Amino acid sequence: MKIVKDPILRIDRFGWVKECHYHPTSDPALIAIGFEQRNIRDFDFLFDLIRSVELCLQTQESQSAYFTLNYQRERKHYEVLIEPDDEDEVLAIVKEITKKKQRENELLEYYNLLQSIYEGTSSSTGRDYLDQLTYQLSKAMKADYTAVCVVDPRKDVLETVSISFKGKKVENTTWKINGSPYEEVIANSYLEIKQGFKNRFSRFELNYHHLFNGFIGVPLFYNQIYSKPIGFMFALYELPLFEGIHNEKILQIFSSRAAAELERIENQRKIEYSEERFKALYNNTPAYFSSTNKSGVVIEVGDYFLEKTGYSRGDVIGKWSIDFLTPASKKYAIRKVMPKFLKKGYCKDVALEFVKKNGDIMEVMLSATLIKDQAGKFVKTIMNLNDVTLLRKIERELRESEERVIQAANRFQLLFDNSPVGIIIHTAGVIRHVNSETIRLARGNSIYDFIGKTAMSFVHPESKSAAQARIDKIYETKKAHRNEQKFLCVDGSVIEVEAMGTLIEYEGEPSVQIAFYDISDRKNAERRILERDKELKTLNENLARQNNQLEEFAHIASHNLRAPITNMLSLIKIREADSSEATQQFVWDNLGKTVRNLDETIIELNDVVKTSWELDKQRKTLRFQDVLEKILNSIVDQIAKADAEFDVKFEMSTVFYPKIYLESIIQNLVTNAIKYKKPHERAMIYLRSWEKNGRGYFSIEDNGMGINLEKYGSRLFGLRKTFHSNHDARGVGLFITKAQIESLGGSIFVESTEGVGTKFIVDFGTLKLISTDH
């Protein structure tokens, strides 16, 4: 006990201090109390200690207690660690935690500040967000004037994007860089002037109209890349600036939020540019495209639609989409189609009648999908009409022909000789009689080309088994039977026929009567129709894929940037919380890795925008280990908080895949495994890759909270579907991951037990098409 520097007390169950040990260096405030041979109940501030001693003796388990006392005008905080010594006594070690308590209070102050920023800006975006940010900065810093400025290097000026003066929004303006504090702020990374700002920057235009004394300012950087500032953020005071130990830290917090929003606005502009490219495709594709708003009013229409229907754009835009249907189709659309569409969010191949401008009726198949933004709000409905007028006409003609065949078969006995269809009667497989139409269809010269020959001799080898089965079934069921087959003519040519067999009695013997007619033209037409349908289906699939790629890019841009940005903010908080040299070095090392990874991701996203319609050309041979290391470097803070351990075994070392997709897939799955770890338990994450039967696979398994697949399995990969109360869950990652994998011909599966863990398995598809090195 002599080597323990903290005071040690031996206390019995009645509260009496039986023994008290002090080290020569022990806290004089504790020595002054005089614990020995006194009862701890005599001290009002030891109420928590009394209860903890009783609990320790009752449970025979370690306990902790806390108390505070004032000593020589200083408020000191202590923690007492209590261990059972026997059934009636405990040992209590008293440790001073004043500095720790002060640090906790300081962290709480920063937390409250961050919470205030979030609450003040969470309901706005864009310029409104920046206006709220400058207003919140004025409150936090008690400043008279706050502003966010960006540099326009082409004009050598500063453009303000948000100004708050005396708690009110001020119209934006421009200032010359020359004479402003901008260059000194950039050179020093942080500039603080306690008084005399107006004299120091007398040529700064803002000083022409106001008298300011105090100033603080920091640079603004996209993605915290400090080599190229985009502007600066500052606060001004009419009175001299009082000493503030947190001024720089607070301003850094606000500047990082402002820079992040400015970058989001810039990325949104790039996405809108991509949408303009999509609109060009929308108008130039040979398909009946149109779009409506939530009320069903047409807001966009493709050029091909107008060309084929005869309408002008002015005839269509602003009109109800259902007003272009026949009355019967309009009624059907309102009562049947629209309720199902609004419930499901899509419809496919709905038969309707569309009225062209000249009054002609066009039979169409409608396919439509409902487009929502990232927040799940309605954006518009995109529709495509497939003209099936000719197909429907052919179908009606075919049905009419079938009806004629059936009627002719029913009247066979009366119309045999003059029947418009060929009729053959055979007994025990030998032809007994044929009509004149049979002679004509089979290119014979007379009835003697058939009589006495087997019926099967006129059946093409490809149809023999089906024809024999049909005859056997007629004898067995005594019911008529119809099928299509190839028929061998007398001259050796082949025609396709539809034949109907019926069991009859001919000259006192059971026989089969075959009525048939030539359907060669119809079959050729059907094959042409199928080919056309296949072409249209391929076109629609290509259009859908291109649209999905555009949507996937928007999700990836917002989702994949969130993790590294969050990591950087966390590293900044660590840096603000602990100024030790080791912590500072740790923060800068990991911040640099995260910044470099984020910069590479943005460059790759820009490349995806430029070549989004040629995704296959972006594939390259990637090493799983390189991709994983990049991702882990970008989320070191998350890994540290989860105390995560990774077990990696890549039997298949490489894969031929788009880099931005592979990084997004692995990052989503790894961060999910960390995010849904069990509380108070270390996260164990196992990553594997392998080849099997010519296909490539990747898996990630964890020991986390798991998912109830019976309850949530069907919605697991849905957009914005979440299944745990994790505050960081958004229901986007798995949706993006599944869309990326399936867009390249792969698939993803999940195995999970609630409370045990989860395993995701990615099937990349046929390996010879996607990989060049195992």
UniProtKB/TrEMBL annotation:
Its EC number is 2.7.13.3. Transmembrane segments: none annotated. InterPro entries: HATPase_C_sf (IPR036890), HATPase_dom (IPR003594), His_kinase_dom (IPR005467), HisK_dim/P_sf (IPR036097), PAC (IPR001610), PAS (IPR000014), PAS-assoc_C (IPR000700), PAS-like_dom_sf (IPR035965). Keywords: Coiled coil, Kinase, Phosphoprotein, Transferase. Residues 556-768 form the Histidine kinase domain. Residues 522-556 form a coiled coil. It catalyses: ATP + protein L-histidine = ADP + protein N-phospho-L-histidine. Residues 274-345 form the PAS domain. PROSITE patterns: HIS_KIN, PAC, PAS. Residues 348-400 form the PAC domain. This is histidine kinase. It comes from Reichenbachiella agarivorans.
